[in-house]
Structure formats: C-alpha cells, structure tokens
Amino acid sequence: MVLHFGWTWVGLLAEDSDLGQRGIHVLQEELIKGGACIDFSENILTSRADKNAFHIVQVIRNSTAKAIIIFSNDADLVPVLNELVKEKVTGRLWVASDGWSTSAVMSMEKYSQLLSGTIGFESHSGEMPGFKEYTGSLQPSRSQDDVFIKEFWEESFGCKWLDQKLFSDALDNRTKMCTGLEKLESLQAYNNDVSRVRFKNQIYNAVYVLAWALHDLSSCRPGSGPFPRGTCADIISFQPWQVGTDISVLNEQTYS
Hints:
The chain has ten helices and five strands, in the order E-H-E-H-E-H-E-H-E-H-H-H-H-H-H. With 256 residues, the chain is α/β, with parallel strands linked by helices. It is found in: Cell membrane.
C-alpha cells in the first residue's frame, strides 16, 4: 500500500515482541526493495510502564515523515497515543496493523483528532465449520477432562467456582458463584466478538495447513516429492525446513 500511494519517506514503529519485530523487518525489506526510504524505526518497549513513549514522540515530532506505520497491539500503543495527544502532535497519517486497527481505541473521543484519517489493515476473517456449535455445547459437567473449561467459564461469566477459600465470601454474597448452567449464547461477546473470532480462524487455518503438510510428507512417493529431483523427506525424522517447504507449496495451491 505504501508503494502504491508513492510514499517514499516513512517512519516505522513496532512493539518489541516477536510479532512486531518480524512484521517490521519484513516491511523494511519490501520498502527498501521498492525504492522507499525509512526516516526512523523505533520500538515500543512492552516491558516498561511508559512503553518508551516520551522518546518515541520526540522522534516523531522531529521527523519530516508524514506517514507512520505502526505494528502494535492496542494496550501497548495507548501510552504512546497519550503522549502524542499531550504533545499536540498532528499532521501525521497513521497506518495501523491488525493488532489495533479494529480496537475500541480508534473510536475514543480523546484520540479523534490525532487518529483522524488513519488507514488500518485487518486480517482475513472466516467461519470455522462447527466452531460456534461446539463452543455452544460446552458444559463443565460434560467436559471434566478439559483442564481449561473452568478457567474459561470464570473468565466468560465473571464468576468463581466454589471452594473452601471462597465459601465465606459466597455466604456473604461478595462473590458471584459459577453454577455450570450458564449459557454461552447469552453473552454478547460470544455473538459479536469479531476480532477474537478472526484470530481463532487464523489459528484453525494454521493447524489445518500444518496437519496437511505432515500428511503430505508422510505419504510422499519417491519421484513425486516436493524436494530436488522429486525426493521425499525421511519419514522417521522430518526437518523443520522440510515442513516449511511443504506448507509453502500448500499455500500456493490454496491461494492460486
């Protein structure tokens, strides 16, 4: 998109996580290859309370780049946005990664002037066959082997399972207790949480592609394999690069 609009002088900002750094690294390579120049590349330091916001904002203030691309999640970006508002930084076009492009932060009034005109990217979303029916049928009493079900239930319904520690609180009505009869369909987030379902779909696709890659490698026939001269991988010991090669082939077949 940057190259499409002819932006040849940009700034980059990324959280210091693997995701942020990988994203910014790939982008830098593509921009330089396309003839664009990078004025600055700064990191949001997620381990610090201030996220390195003061330094980042000073760099942005002193930069002549008008288009700034940000790879971050919304929570770690907020201190930077607050500092930008405080310093009255304007006149920048922000390009948002999918980590914050659909966040509620985008519609907060205090950021309206700062973020006006922001261009955001969103990951491809899709329906996972049977996912909603599966989650809708979950019941703690029927899923006792699921080690995550009780934690999921507490998080979803804001309740706690009764134990000795909570017994006195429960008697005093200070804690909402889980009954196991709560219905997921009653939760607005269950029906409308678009961003979370989008990432679940990505995980589903990743697992699906990995499973197919392993299946292809294990059923490979010499002479028709994906490696030089049609060779196959050692079925006893797949190497990571071999799985990666097969995944690339599957992706080409899927999206071509």
